Structures are given as C-alpha cells and as structure tokens.
Amino acid sequence: MHTYYGIWTTTTKSFTNPSLAAKIRRAAPGDLIVATTSEDDAALAKATAWLGDCDVAVSGDAYIYRHTLDPRYVAYFFQSEQFQDQKVRHITGTKVRRISGESLGKIRIPVPPLAVQREIARILDQFTQLEARRQQYAFYRN
C-alpha cells in the first residue's frame, strides 16, 4: 500500500476473487486505510483515504479508520510531523515494525471545523500536485 497509493485514491491496484472478498473486511468510501506493518518506521501507519464509489476489500495488515472528518485531511495528518512524533512511541517489532489499533487510538488528531479541514486538504492537494510536477520536470530534465 505504502509504495503505490498516495494520500487518497478512487481506484484499486489489485483485485481478489469474489468468494474471498466476501469474507474479509471492507472499507467504505471516506474510510482511511492504515498500513499496520512495515520494514521501516516512515511507511508504518501510512494512510490512504478511500474515495471510491463502493466498498473495497482490505488486507489483514491494515486497519480501517471510520470517522466523521474530511478523509483527505485525516490522511494528510497521518503524514504530518505531529503524527510521526506521536506514532514513534507506539511502534513495536525489530525487522517488521508494527503498530496496534489500540496504539493508533491514542494518537491525538487536531479537529478544526469541517470547512477548515476541507480547505486544508484542498491546499495540500495543490502542493502535492505541484511537487509531483516538479519531480517529473527534474526527471525529464536530467
């Protein structure tokens, strides 16, 4: 998840057979899908907001965070220094790093009004697009 998806997505990269999908957990549109294992601390607890039109099957190595906040705002928060500083206290494991759902529940998220959350997410989306263009330009320039 952490190497393919960005802050939010409306499509999936892979699919599973319908009989297996019927047995596993599903994220609804607006949910955050959070990676709970990684080999590096930076990718641990990477979150992607699911903004597709229907429910999506989720791996056992991920948590589904249901909330009433702007999904993109929450996903950006999971990348913030404030989140990372709180997360580091809850990481376990040596080679494979883990964070529990209980530990994620202890992380405090600042909650401005919904309109402010949406504006923050809109601005951060623009910065993300600009950074992607800058990297693309640098790649083709070299």
Automatic annotation (TrEMBL):
Domain (Type I restriction modification DNA specificity): residue spans on this chain: 72-134
SUPFAM superfamilies to which the protein is assigned, alphabetical: DNA methylase specificity domain
Gene Ontology biological process terms in this record: DNA restriction-modification system
Tagged with keyword Transmembrane helix: no
Keywords: DNA-binding, Restriction system
A Pfam family matched in the record: Methylase_S
Domain of life: Bacteria
Gene3D superfamilies named among the record's database cross-references: DNA methylase specificity domains
InterPro entries xref list: Restrct_endonuc_typeI_TRD, Restrct_endonuc_typeI_TRD_sf, Type-I_RE_S_subunit
Gene Ontology molecular function: DNA binding
Family: Belongs to the type-I restriction system S methylase family.
PANTHER family linked: TYPE I RESTRICTION ENZYME ECOKI SPECIFICITY SUBUNIT (PTHR43140:SF1), TYPE-1 RESTRICTION ENZYME ECOKI SPECIFICITY PROTEIN (PTHR43140)
Assembly, per entry: The methyltransferase is composed of M and S polypeptides.
Name of the protein: Type I restriction modification DNA specificity domain-containing protein
Species per Swiss-Prot/TrEMBL record: Leifsonia xyli subsp. cynodontis DSM 46306
